[in-house]
Amino acid sequence: MATATYSLLVDWDNDGTFISAGEDVTARTLHVEFSRGRDVDSQPTGRSVAGSLQAVLNNESGAYNSYNATGTLYGSLLPGRLIRLVGSGTQTMWQGYIDRITPLPSVKGLNTARLEAIGPLGFLNQKEVSLNTYANIDTGSAVDLVLSEAGWQTGTAYRDVDAGKTTMVRFWTDRKRTIEALREIEETEAGFVRESAAGKIVFENRHRRLTSPYTTSQVTFTDDPSGTLVLQGMTQEDPLPFIFTEFVSMVEPYTLGSTGTLWVLNQTGTLSPSIAPNGGTRVFVARYPGPTASADHIGVDSWVTPSATADWNVTTDQQGTGTNLNGSCTVSATSYQNELRVVLTNNAAMLVGTGSAFTLGSTTVTPDKTLYGSLDELRVFTIARNSEQIAKHRSRNIYAQEGLALYYKFNEGRGTAIRDHSQSRANGTLYPAANTPIWNAGLVTPNTPPTVEAIFDYQKRGGVIV
Question: Taking all residues of the chain, what is their mean pLDDT, rounded to a whole number?
């Protein structure tokens, strides 16, 4: 009986190679086994299943304990790392991705670790895919679309996809696991989706196995113990379940409907969503068919990107009577068969009021512009704050900070008196009395609900708050 040597390699540093220190784990491998292929040994009914690999590693050094901060692989024992089993020479026998590593300490024996890995199909099946509707697309092209949507890399090193022999009048997929989407294409083609020894995703059209090299025997097995490839424990399957006299194919006709309004945001008026200025975004997800759609509607052939004025408006007031900001906003959309994801971006500067003069005590203040919006906190510093400091503290409470001159949290919840939480203790009063702001869930807001909510850091320079 012939024997072979094997090498087990793991790309711990995720750089696409196996040359870094500790990435050849062969010397520490005590046992390794792997599998890949069909779930049933039948070409008409057998489907490819995700491959798997299990290995037991010597872990006396503790290198394969993820919590061992002094270990040489600390921080690199992560799921998704590429793993490869190489046979004699440079022949790749199996390639996939680490699923988990479990340390197995022993009181009396050897400390080991169990490494479990999954093949490319299992790795891809962790993701859901959605695609827009495609017309008159062949099955091979559809496989490429699904793989790309799942994040699988392109190129012959990662996929081997035949041109499809079947053209689909309509093709889409909506929030399905990757393998489920590939199975639908596989059945339509009467082809075969599998993973190769080298870790590729392979799609065979229904003609591939009628051509070379599939028409020529590749290896010969024997029950002779002195042979090269020896059979052990072969069991003959009952052939009757694999004899077919009838084949059934399902055909679904579709009717293309007319253009119409499919989805409307149900939040209007004072419930209209806000979009922060200076590049703030809001994502809207439209799905169809919905509860009110006709029972025979199954999806959307082509979405239309919503346009300003006709489909949406952005104003400085939730009632739509304020200043129109459509010219400062941009929209982008990603379409799927049952879903349209719209991203609306507000590029307008900070939303402000008219800059009208007001009286503060005995002093008339004429600002350049006045704030119109929700104010969660007000902080005044006597020294400039850099962008890192502002970003770090903008959404959390602060305590003793250098240069913090005023700090109003607006957490009183009622009345007009506000407390200064800085060392200045400069408690204040909310103005104007004729239009007292409204307390709302920790936010002090003007009587007219604002369109934009924001948190601002203010700086004091030369005695002027800017």
Answer: 83
Neighbours of 255 (CB within 10 A): 5
> How big is the chain by its Cα radius of gyration, in Å?
33
Tokens of residue 465, six digits: 């708050």
Report the distance separating Cα 48 and Cα 263, nearest Å.
Answer: 40
Do 241 and 418 contact (CB within 8 A), yes or no? Answer: no
The residues, any chain, with a CB within 8 Å of residue 43's CB and separated by 6 or more, are 209
Q: Helix 178-189 vs helix 139-149: angle between axes, to the nearest 10 degrees?
A: 170
* C-alpha to C-alpha distances, 111 to 59, 101, 432, nearest whole angstrom: 5, 13, 74
CA distance 376 to 392: 16
**Four-CA torsion 267, 269, 270, 272, nearest 10 degrees:** 40
Q: Which residues pair with 460 in a beta bridge?
A: 465
Task: Write out pLDDT tens, residues 437-458.
Answer: 667 654 444 333 333 223 333 3
At position 280, the amino acid (one-letter code) is G
DSSP codes joined into one string, 298-348: ---S------BTTTB--BSBTTS-S-B-GGGEEEEEEE-SSEEEEEEEE-P
Residue-wise pLDDT for 326-383, tens only, equals 999 999 999 998 999 999 998 886 544 445 565 555 666 665 555 555 677 888 887 8
Residue 265, exposed/middle/buried by CB under 10 A (0-12, 13-18, 19+)?
middle
What are the tokens at 197? 């020894």
Distance (Å, rounded) from C-alpha 296 to C-alpha 392?
52
Q: For 157-171, what is each residue's pLDDT tens digit?
A: 999 999 999 999 989
293 phi/psi in degrees, rounded to 5:
-75, 160
Residue in this structure with the two tokens 């509707």, named with its chain if needed: 133
Residue from 3, 56, 4, 46 nearest 25 by CA: 56
**Angle at Cα 224 formed by Cα 218 and Cα 229, nearest 5°?**
30
**Distance (Å, whole) CA 129 – CA 290:** 20
- Residue range 143-158, pLDDT digits in tens: 999 999 999 999 999 9
Domains of the chain, earliest start first: 7-118 (2.40.30), 125-210 (3.55.50.10), 269-346 (no CATH), 358-465 (no CATH)
Among 24, 16, 12, 32, CA closest to 81: 12
